[in-house]
Amino acid sequence: MTVGTVVGRAPGVLPAGRYGMPGLVRSEWLKLRTVRSTTWSLVLLVVLSVGIGALGTAETRAHWTASTAVGFDPTQTSLIGVFFAQLVIGVLGVLAMSAEYGTGTIRATFAAAPRRPLVLAAKSAVFFAVALVVSEVVAFVSFLLGQALLGAPAIHATLSSPGALRAVVESGLYLALLGLLGLGLATIIRHTAGAIGAFVGVVLVLPLVVQALPSSTQLAVRRWLPSRIGQSIIATRPSFGHELSPWVGFAVLCAYVAVVLVAGAVLLVRRDA
Asked: Is the separation of the CB atoms in 202 and 123 below 8 Å?
C-alpha cells in the first residue's frame, strides 16, 4: 500500500461506496434465516392459520343447516385463521429489529453500515419479502383446504368465485404488512416487550376501547382500525355499510405502516444506538 492511499482518510473510516443495498440485503437475510425464533414463528404462523381455518370450516360443515346458508361467506370462514396468525407475524416483526437492540449487535451493524435509514430499508425489504411469501402460501392453503372440507350440502367457493382470489391474495398482504408494522414499532420503541405491547394494543386493545365510545363515534372510528380492515379484506361480501372497501382499507394500512417506518428512520438517525 502506498502512502497516497491512506492520506486524508480518518482511521477506521470505510471508503465511500464500500457498501450498498445489495450487501445489506444479503446481511439482513443471513440474520433473519439464522435466528431460531424466525423458524418457530413461521411454523406457528402456518399451524395457527391453516389449522384454525380448517377447524372452522369442518365445524361449519358438521353443523350445516338451511339457515346457515343465509349470509354465509365460505371464503371468509376458511381464512378466519388470519386473525390468530396476525399476532405471530407481528411478534416476529418486532423481534426482527428488537433482538439486535437486546443483544447489542445493533451497534456493530451501524458501525459497519453508518447509513441507518438504508439499514432499515434493507431489513424491512427482507422481512416483508419473507413474510409475504409465507403468508401467501398460508392464505392459499387455508382457502383450498377449507373449501375442500366444505363439501355438499354446504356452500363452498373456488378461486374463480366473485371476490375469492382477491380475498386470498389480500389476506397474505395483510399479514405481511402487520409484520412490517411490528418491525416499525420495534424501531421506534427499541424494546421487545414494549414493542409487542404496542402492537397488541393497536391490533386487539384499541378495538375494545372504541367499543366504549358512543355508537355514532364507533361507526366513524372503527372502520379505520387495522383489525376492522382485516375483516373487510377476508370477506367477499360486505357485512356492514360502514366498512372501507378491501382495497381502500389495504391502502390505509399501507399508509399506517409507512408512517411508522418513516418515524422509525428519523429516530434511528437522531438517537444513539
From this structure: no
Task: State residue 243's pLDDT score.
Answer: 79
- Average pLDDT per consecutive 10 residues, the chain (273 residues; last block may be shorter): 42 56 91 88 92 90 78 89 93 93 88 91 96 96 92 84 94 96 96 95 91 84 91 80 84 97 94 77
Domain extent listing, the chain: 21-61+71-270
pTM score above 0.85? yes
C-beta of residue 78 within 8 angstroms of C-beta of residue 146: yes
Contacting residues for 237 by C-beta, under 8 A, at least 6 apart? 71, 73, 163
Q: Are 19 and 113 in contact (CB under 8 A)?
A: yes
Interior/surface letters 24-41, b for 16+ CB within 10 angstroms, e for the rest: bbebbbebbeebeebeeb
Q: How far apart are the first and last CA of the chain?
A: 34
**Are the C-beta atoms of residues 128 and 180 closer than 8 Å to each other?**
yes
Closest among 34, 233, 253 to 126, alpha carbons compared: 34
Per-residue cell: 160 = 374463480
Q: Which burial class, exposed, middle or buried, applies to 62 when counting CB atoms under 10 A from its CB (0-12, 13-18, 19+)? A: exposed
